[in-house]
Amino acid sequence: TVIPAWQTRYYLALVLYGTQQNQKALQLLLTCDEADFAPLFLTRAALQEGEEKLHSLLLSEELDRSWRAGKELTKHYITNQQYDKALTVARRYANRFPHNHHLTLLYAKTLYLTNHFTECLNLLERTEILPYEGSTEGHDIYRDAYLGYAYQLMEHGKYQDALDAVQKARLWPE
């Protein structure tokens, strides 16, 4: 029996994935460990969970440190509440791709999730976030970071500054 090259199995897996046959697609992708193509491992990660997903994401990143690998790895760490790891990855990729608004917003989110509210707000203030239909994530991070900052201020007895932060949380500068 001749085993087809990984490319053939990868393309067949994409067809299966596109037709919602995810288990069959994953089974094929799991036979492609010899591949040296980062998008294959990103696709495989999209069909996996837990440690298997992390393994595929790390393989993808090892092959090609593309912004997509950084984005998906950061999202994985966030999903698994590993916020410090998410912050480390997000910072690295946001610095590597400074004009990528997806990574900048994800970096801001990790700053918020790790209680770095001031740094998060400074990043958002110097970033132009282009809205797209239905997108509220930038606004949500902005609001939540100001509210988190207000909470920190209240813990230090700075009540007027906290009220000012709450007022700013209601805004969304254009």
Structure description:
Helix 4 packs antiparallel against helix 5 (67-79), helix 5 runs antiparallel to helix 6 (83-96) and helix 7 (101-113) packs antiparallel against helix 8. By secondary structure, the protein is an all-alpha fold. The protein has ten helices and no strands. Helices cover 71% and strands 0% of the residues.
Amount of beta strand: under 5%
| Biggest sheet character | none
Shape: elongated
Contiguous runs where pLDDT drops below 50 for at least 5 residues: none
User: What is the helix content?
Assistant: over 70%
Structural class label: mainly alpha
Radius of gyration (CA) equals 20 Å
Number of helices: 10
**How many β-strand runs?**
0
SSE sequence, one letter per element: HHHHHHHHHH
Task: Compute the separation of the termini in Å.
Answer: 62 Å
Averaging pLDDT over every residue, what do you get? Answer: 93
Secondary-structure blueprint:
Blueprint: H1 6-18, H2 22-29, H3 38-46, H4 50-63, H5 67-79, H6 83-96, H7 101-113, H8 117-125, H9 137-155, H10 159-169
Keywords:
elongated, 174 residues, 10 helices, 71% helix, 0% strand, mainly alpha
Structure summary:
This protein is mostly helical.
